Amino acid sequence: MAGREQHRQRNLPCCDTGGSATNIIPDFGFERRPDNNVSPRGARGERQYIWGWLRLADSAGTPGNVGLEVVPELISAIVWRCSGASRAAQKKRVHHCMRGISEWEEQLNSFDIEERREVLRRLFSACKSALPGEGSNLNLHCHSFFSFNAHGWSPSRIAWEARKAGWYAAGLCDFDVLDGLEEFLSAGLVLGLRAVVHIETRVFDTDRENVEINSPGEPGVAYIMGAGFPRIPADTTPEARQLAELRRRATERNAAMVQRINALLPRIALDYEQDVVSLTPGGNPTERHIVRAYIRKSRDVFQQPDRVASFWAEPLECPPEEVLDLLADPVLLEETIRTRLFKRGGPGYEPPSPRLFPPIREFIGWVKACHAIPMAAWLDGTSAGEADPEELLESLRSLGLSALNIIPERNWNVKDPTLRIRKIANLDAVVKAAQRLHFPVNIGTEMNKPGLPMVDDLTGVVLRKYRDTFMRGARFMIGQSVLARYAGMAFDSDKAQGGFPSHTQRIEFFEQVGALPPLTEERAAQLLDLGEERALAHLRAEIAQTPQTSVSAT
Question: Could you tell me if 308 and 328 are in contact, meaning their C-beta atoms sit under 8 angstroms apart?
């Protein structure tokens, strides 16, 4: 007990906690072979490695972990090559080590930013020699716990998971806030990960007020994004006030929704600040937080599953036995409550109007004033507003949008075979339209619903034909982030437009910057010390000296 308490007092992983294995092999004298197993370095490497694990399991030293594929090999080595301990005892020690990393990973989700920063550095220091090299997977649309992440992950945790998996690049994208910007970009520098930060919100488009666009059942309402923000707007600036207004509108909508649902469900009425806002580190809850808060309150009030099911049966218009089945599937329960109570036709729903959402032109102007890129958001092509993707993108380009976000998963991974064929055709049409109109394409999985993949399978039958387009889009976004932050050259800035005679040449240059090796803390500090003009010259020189992945103009 004393040893475990010592771990806690020193804020280090305690061996008796749970967690899942990750694909990390710490540097205790083994190295990966091409077959992804481990082999000893030197004559005494194996013995040193094994005893390193055993010391680690009983100490407060650097934590370690192994990939699941080498666990049997490691356990066998410990059992058969180290005498004096039973198989069960040695197996227990190995799994203790595996749990250590998982505990640190959970600390990355702390609401304390300083704790997250400290733990991220510890993790990287402990595991950097075993992290994989750069791969070709990417996800540039990850929501964090500053809006809603299905796993409760912070920006630091997302960056760590991306680096641990060898992603080419990662992008943070929260609703209505930029709270995670500095944390995410800083985490990218610590880990040597290409990182970019976006924002997502909903706007009202008066030109299409009677047309359903990409928010199902809500004519005139459109999801829209800003891409590649270099920094959070400075306090007291007009841009900071507009950012605060996005948060205020979201708070107003959510608080009003809770009032309406409370009137329907008085026995589990929520206190918005205490029960909902407290679920987020930045005070920016979403509709999904509200749903979870009602489910949690119903369990607290009614305790027994049959009583909880009886309570929800009436508002969900389901027999209690069906609700009992839903209680066993938290994801389906959340989606059912959200669909029947919060969406169109439900008691919590308020029809869209210009009062609830900022005007589209106002949002676009704000994004540009923040030196970011206004970006359209594609749903799946099944609405009237998305029926002609080329016409839609041309219209949005006239308003100042110059990039496109797609969530590929919802555009092909569909159970209904007829709908799947239709959505894949729509995906093909919008990607081709983006290519013709020179819209860089940003992709990701959102990570805001349980069951969504970490990354899209760009080698799969459906998406592999777009892999080059998606990779180039990622490089473009990273280029925007780097150039706007360190060289004062946002894509839509006068500086960028003046420096390149054509739109396609400008895109190509941004892609080339994004294809450079990931920034580190040292390289970022160097760029800052140089100042904007010299930093731009330095990046140009790096492009000239660095072998580039083949990238032609869009």
Answer: no
Q: Are strands 373-377 and 221-227 parallel, antiparallel or unpaired?
A: antiparallel
Pick left, alpha or beta for residue 168 (phi over 0 → left; psi -120 to 50 → alpha; otherwise beta): alpha
List the structure tokens of 89. Answer: 């005892």
Helix (H/G/I), strand (E/B), else coil: 201: strand
Based on its alpha-carbon atoms, the radius of gyration of the chain, rounded to whole angstroms, reads: 25
User: Distance between CA 462 and CA 408 in Å, rounded?
Assistant: 9
> How far, in whole angstroms, is CA 268 from its chain's centroid?
32
Give the position of tokens 């923040």.
370
CA–CA distance, 56 with 58 (Å, rounded to integer): 5
End-to-end CA separation in angstroms for the chain: 62
Whether the pLDDT of residue 379 is over 50: the answer is yes
Confidence of residue 98 (pLDDT cuts 50, 70, 90): low
Residue indicated by tokens 């998406």: 463
- Closest to 189 measured CA to CA, from 143, 126, 142, 121: 121
Please check the confidence at residue 43 and state whether its pLDDT lies above 70.
Answer: no
Helix (H, G, I), strand (E, B) or coil at 448: coil
Instruction: Tell which residue, 354, 344, 350, has the closest CA to residue 217.
Output: 344
Q: DSSP letter at 461? A: T
Q: What are phi and psi of 223, to 5 degrees?
A: -70, 140
**pLDDT at 54 > cutoff 80:** no
pLDDT tens-digit readout, 185-236: 999 999 999 999 999 999 999 999 999 999 999 999 999 999 999 999 999 9
Tens of pLDDT, residue by residue over 288-332, are 999 999 999 999 999 999 999 999 999 999 999 999 999 999 999
Tokens (6 digits) for 511: 């892609």
Q: Which two tokens stand for residue 374?
A: 């206004």
d(CA 519, CA 536): 14
Nearest to 368 by CA among 539, 511, 173, 224: 224
Q: What is the pLDDT of residues 507-550, one digit of tens each?
A: 999 999 999 999 999 999 999 999 999 999 999 999 999 876 54
Range of weakest confidence among 70-74, 95-99, 465-469: 70-74
The residue to which tokens 């708070």 are assigned: 251
Query: Does residue 380 come out as left (phi exceeding 0), alpha (psi in the -120 to 50 range) or beta?
Result: alpha
Which domains, ranges and CATH numbers included, belong to the chain? 2-107 (no CATH), 134-233+370-549 (3.20.20.140), 237-360 (no CATH)
Nearest to 142 by CA among 215, 222, 197: 197
C-alpha–C-alpha distance, residues 329 and 310, integer Å:
16
For residue 134, give the 3-state DSSP assignment. Answer: coil
Query: What is the model's pLDDT at position 407?
Result: 98
| pTM confidence score | 0.83
